[in-house]
User: What shape does this take?
Amino acid sequence: MPLQNRVDPFGVIHAVPERGLFMGNRGIIHDPETKTLLKKRWALQAWIICVCEFGDVRREPMGRNRQSDDQSGGKAGWTELFFLDEVTALSAGHRPCF
Assistant: This one.
């Protein structure tokens, strides 16, 4: 089953298998145990978009991608959101990251 992490031009988050060309961030808005979205749709106001690949960095979408002080496997990292293209991301209210 696809994760609910694809954003349409109106800013609504859907569950579809395609990822798109760009990735975005609205903060931590998911539960890493169930890999589902929380009730809130953003945790910060600086919504950004970036390329999907960045060096050798690999993240598990909606996983535990933030380091923890203990051995429990980490905390929930920011929620990866995906956009079809840059125009979709900009119309959804995200800005480019530099």
